[in-house]
Amino acid sequence: MKMPFIRLKRCAAIMLFVSVLLLFFAGAVFCSSGGEGGPSGPKGWVATDTYRVMNFVVLAVGLFLLLRKPASGALNDRIKGIKEQLSELESKKAEAEKKLAQYNEKLALLNKDAEKIIAEQIKQGNEAKNRIVEAAGAAALKLEEQARRNIEHEFKQARLKLQEEVVEKALIKAEGIIKSKITGKDQEQLVSEYLGKVVA
Q1: I want to staple 8 with a disulfide (CB 3.0 to 4.6 A). Which of 50, 74, 88, 193 is the partner?
Q2: Which three-class secondary structure state does DSSP give residue 127?
Q3: For residues 144-174, b (16+ Cβ closer than 10 Å) or e, as one string?
Q4: Distance, CA of 52 to CA of 34 (rounded, Å)
Q5: What's the burial of 74, exposed, middle or buried (CB within 10 Å: 0-12/13-18/19+)?
Q6: Dihedral sign, CA of 79, 82, 86, 92?
Q7: What CA–CA distances, in Å, run from 6 to 9, 13, 83, 144?
Q8: Are 10 and 74 in contact, with CB atoms under 8 Å apart?
Q9: Do residues 29 and 55 touch, judged by C-beta distance below 8 A?
Q10: What is the rounded distance in angstroms from the CA atom of residue 49 to the CA atom of residue 101?
Q11: How far apart are CA 111 and CA 119, in angstroms?
Q12: How many angstroms separate the Cα of 78 from the Cα of each of 5, 13, 71, 87?
C-alpha cells in the first residue's frame, strides 16, 4: 500500500525536475539570438527559430518518452492500490455486516431467553405464593382448632370450678339450715340410726 505512494512521489519529483529543466532550456533557447537584425530584432522566421523549435520538440518528446512509463506505472500502481483498498474495505464491510447480523441474532436470542426466564420466575413466584397461602390456611385451621380445644377445656375447667363452688356453698347453706332446724331429739334419733347401720 505504501509502495505506490512512494513511487508516485518519485515520479512527481522527476517530473518537476524535468519541467524545471525544460523551462530553463526552453527559456535559454528562446532568449538566445544569433545577433542578426540589430536593435529592432528579426522580422519573420529565421533558421535559428527552426533549430529552437526542433530543440524544444526533441526535448519534449524525450521527456515524454522518458517519463511515460514511470508516470503511467505510478498511476497504475496508485489505481491498483486504491482498488485493493476498496476491495479490502468492501470485505471488511461485509465482515462487519455479518458480525452485526450475528450480534443482532444473539441479541434477539438473549431477549427471548430473558423473556423465558422472567416468565419462569413469575410462574415459580405464583406457585410459591399459592404454597404459602395454602400453608398459611392450613396453619390458620390448626390454630383455630387448637383455640377451640383450649376454649372448650377452659369452659370445662370453669364449669367444674363453678360446680365445686356451688356444691360447697350448697353444703354450707344446707348445714346452716340443718343446724337451725334440727333439735336435740332429732340428733339422738340420727345417731341411733347411724349406729344401727354400722352395727348391722
Answers
A1: 74
A2: helix
A3: eeeeeeeeeeeeeeeeeeeeeeeeeeeeeee
A4: 11
A5: buried
A6: positive
A7: 5, 11, 17, 98
A8: yes
A9: yes
A10: 73
A11: 12
A12: 7, 16, 10, 14
User: Which residues lie closer than 8 Å to 199 by C-beta, 6 or more apart?
Assistant: none
Name the one residue in this structure whose C-alpha cell is 331429739.
Answer: 185
Instruction: For cell 370450678, name the residue.
Output: 161
42-59 residues labelled b (16+ CB within 10 A) or e (exposed) = eeeeeeeeeebeeeeeeb
Name the amino acid, one letter, at 152.
Answer: E
**Rounded to an integer, what distance in angstroms lies between the CA atom of residue 49 and that of residue 51?**
5
- Give me the count of residues in the chain: 200
Are 60 and 25 in contact by the 8 Å Cβ rule? The answer is no
Interatomic CA distance for residues 63 and 24, integer angstroms: 14
Query: What is the pLDDT confidence band of residue 1, given thresholds at 50, 70 and 90?
Result: very low
Contact 5, 79 (CB under 8 A): no
pLDDT in tens, 75-127: 888 888 899 999 999 999 999 999 999 999 999 899 888 889 999 999 998 99
- The pTM score is 0.36
Spatial separation of the C-alpha atoms in residues 92 and 74, rounded to whole Å: 26
